[in-house]
Amino acid sequence: MEESVFIIHPSEIIRKGLAWILQEYFSMEITQLAAVSELSSFSEITNNQIIIIMEADCHIPDEIWKKLKRNNHLSVIGFLGHERKNNSYPAYEFELQERFTALQIQQLIQVVRKSVAKQRNIISVNGDLTVREKDVIRLIAMGYANKEIADRLNISIHTVISHRKNITEKLNIKSISGLTVYAIMNSLIDIKDINPEELI
Amino acid sequence: MKIFNKDDKMSSLVTGNYNLLPVINRFGIHLGFKEKTIGEVCEEQNIHTGFFLAIVNTYSDESYFPHAELLSFSPFLIIDYLMTTHQYYINYILPKIERLLNQVLLTCRKDCSSLKMINSFYQKYKAELLLHFQQEDEKVFPYIKELYNTRVIKDPNNTLAVFENEHTNVEVKLSDLKNLIIKYLEPNYDSNAMNEFLFALFQFEKDIFDHARIEDKILNVQVLKYEKQLKKLNGIG
Asked: Is the pTM here over 0.80, yes or no?
């Protein structure tokens, strides 16, 4: 299945900037459009993994939307101006602010990657981690200390420590940032939930 | 593994274990030894033969670590060696590793986000490592030199124990980096490029292990003992 990204925005700087960033991460085809109506030239696309990044208050004409949706796997990422409008599109996987930070970019990358992975139907193999260990690794990645993890999972601090020991032994990864990278790579956690200090 | 002595040929050191090449370079020794022995080359270049031997032997054989002998060397000699090693890491090894990682990134085929994540992780590791080197070169080593030169503890609340030791942290991250790549990264890159990067990481890991060992088990032990003596002499503590 081919993958393609559409960036729809009237500002050329924003289009090009986003395209440039995404190209750094993905080798998929990126098409830049100034207006939603231009999407009609692409409505014949079939069997594609399509990611549309567009302004939140724009509306894809029903006809094009239905066609694309029927023949492809579609996900939409909403792009907000600094003034939030009420009639926002319901189907956004992620809302991007106009003045986005480096962390938001990482989140966007994560969203794009997830949509791709979903479609590829890759069921990630998480080693032999138990459900509980996955809970613990998630909270570690989110920057919680042992005591907080214990409170959140309603277990004793000793149990948390023993889970951590088991995780480290199984994965052979000891540092918090290493575990965070593991959790993201295996889709145990979303990048926007992590403690940004731990990664970038 | 063979323990070298001063009557061995310098060339046998390299043929015996080529990983020693950068180590002997750090002493200012370069190839073209002819038939000279280790002792002869060291004398020619004004290098402490015993220290040189201790360093190459502990480096080439992990189980060999003559504590007593190592503890007998001057801390100035050890600091010189450690600082030269830092320069070698900063100016040569880290740029090389980074170059190799960039090569891998260039070969990435589809969805490079995980590889990018590895890159971020490496950058974080590198930043921590550089900070650690900087802390030692600018604070710890000058402190030790001054301590031995003046034989006075200026501030009893500011001694070696105060300088935080971050060796374990940086070592752990390097090992995590390797494991993430070996076990969990999807191989959507050129294998040869990745192998070169990994080889460099393995070699660096070995080098820095040896480096940390000399620092933690020799230099720090010497200084802590010296500080104790000085405190007694100065009637502190």
From this structure: no
The CATH classification of domain A2-120, taken from the options 3.30.300.180, 3.30.450.20, 3.40.50.2300, 3.20.20.210:
3.40.50.2300
Contact call for residues B136 and B226 (beta carbons, < 8 A): no
Find how far residue B55's CA is from the centre of its chain: 11
Q: By the CB < 8 Å criterion, does B198 face chain A?
A: no
| DSSP-assigned letter for residue B4 | P
For residue A152, what are its two tokens?
Answer: 């959140």
Q: Are B84 and A162 in contact (CB under 8 A)?
A: no
The helix-helix angle for B75-88 and B141-150 (nearest 10°) equals: 160
Q: Answer yes or no: do B111 and A116 touch at CB < 8 A.
A: yes
Q: What is residue B8's predicted lDDT score, i.e. its pLDDT?
A: 95
Per-residue confidence band for A121, with pLDDT thresholds at 50, 70 and 90 = very low
Q: Fold identical between A2-120 and A131-198?
A: no
| Residue A181 near chain B (CB below 8 Å) | yes
Q: At what angle do helices B49-60 and B75-88 cross, to 10 degrees?
A: 50
Planar angle of CA B91, A25, A8, nearest 5 degrees = 140
| pLDDT reported for residue A125 | 42
Chain B positions in Cβ-Cβ contact with residue A109 (cut-off 8 Å):
113, 116
A185–B111 CB contact, under 8 Å: no
Could you report how far apart the first and last alpha carbons of chain B are, in Å?
45
Q: Cα distance from A127 to chain B (closest Cα, Å)?
A: 9
Short-list B118, B124, B113, B87, CA closest to B101: B118
Average pLDDT score over chain B: 90
Contact A25 B176 (CB under 8 A): no
